[in-house]
């Protein structure tokens, strides 16, 4: 019987992802053998932010309430700002951002389609959950790339302007037990697909033999995910 990482016995060691804005005190896992080549890392990171922006922009059109439109617009703007920041890094390296993103368009678009819910609230939750988990993961990966990685980490730590989105989701959850149950189940469905995207970002030829090295990161991702869920009043 196959066990997912969250079903296994507690890992022998733990890793603490840095809180955004915190530059000290965090233990690091050495990703040197697992981190993808720099251009692959940058291309995926840039395209993920562009995808968040696109999904949030579509949600603006699907949202009738003006205050909610404004909140989603701010979150979309934050995703676009991160995308542009990563693109600037790519250009400073003398690379073309479109060339670097193109290889990942198909599979990341497929992932995004899977996370679009039947209702706007589900999609809003999906962006919040998946962007949070993957930003954390890419922030951990960034330590493998020296000064370029530090620049990307600074970009990923920028404010994502999701506080108002959390409030929108909390109001929805508190208004109706059916919504609470639906969104809780939907969030749990998102986790597997999101972790798969994270795994695909690593060097697959070394992943099996280095599983113990990566597992603490997955554990921390799940811990951060649980805290996001708790903040909204949902069970992880």
UniProtKB/TrEMBL annotation:
Q: Which InterPro entries match?
A: Ferritin-like, Ferritin_actino
Domain Ferritin-like, chain residue ranges per copy:
41-200
Q: What is this protein called?
A: Ferritin-like domain-containing protein
Which species is the source of this protein?
Microbacterium murale
Looking up Pfam families in the UniProt record yields: MiaE_2
């Amino acid at each position: 019987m196959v066990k997912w990482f969250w079903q296994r016995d507690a890992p022998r060691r733990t890793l603490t992802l840095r809180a955004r804005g915190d530059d000290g005190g965090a233990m690091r896992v050495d990703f040197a053998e697992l981190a993808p080549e720099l251009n692959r890392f940058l291309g995926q990171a840039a395209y993920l932010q562009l995808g968040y922006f696109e999904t949030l922009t579509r949600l603006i059109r699907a949202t009738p309430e003006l205050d909610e439109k404004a909140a989603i617009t701010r979150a979309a703007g934050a995703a676009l700002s991160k995308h542009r920041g990563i693109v600037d890094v790519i250009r400073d390296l003398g690379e073309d951002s479109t060339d670097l993103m193109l290889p990942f368009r198909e599979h990341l678009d497929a992932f995004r389609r899977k996370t679009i819910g039947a209702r706007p609230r589900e999609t809003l939750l999906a962006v919040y959950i998946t962007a949070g988990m993957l930003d954390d993961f890419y922030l951990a990966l960034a330590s493998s790339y020296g000064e370029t990685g530090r620049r990307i980490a600074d970009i990923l730590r920028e404010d994502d302007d999701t506080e108002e989105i959390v409030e929108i989701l909390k109001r929805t959850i508190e208004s109706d037990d059916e919504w609470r149950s639906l969104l809780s189940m939907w969030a749990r469905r998102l986790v597997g697909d999101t972790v798969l995207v994270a795994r695909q970002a690593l060097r697959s030829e070394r992943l099996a033999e280095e599983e113990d090295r990566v597992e603490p990161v997955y554990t921390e991702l799940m811990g951060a995910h649980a805290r996001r869920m708790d903040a909204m009043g949902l069970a992880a």
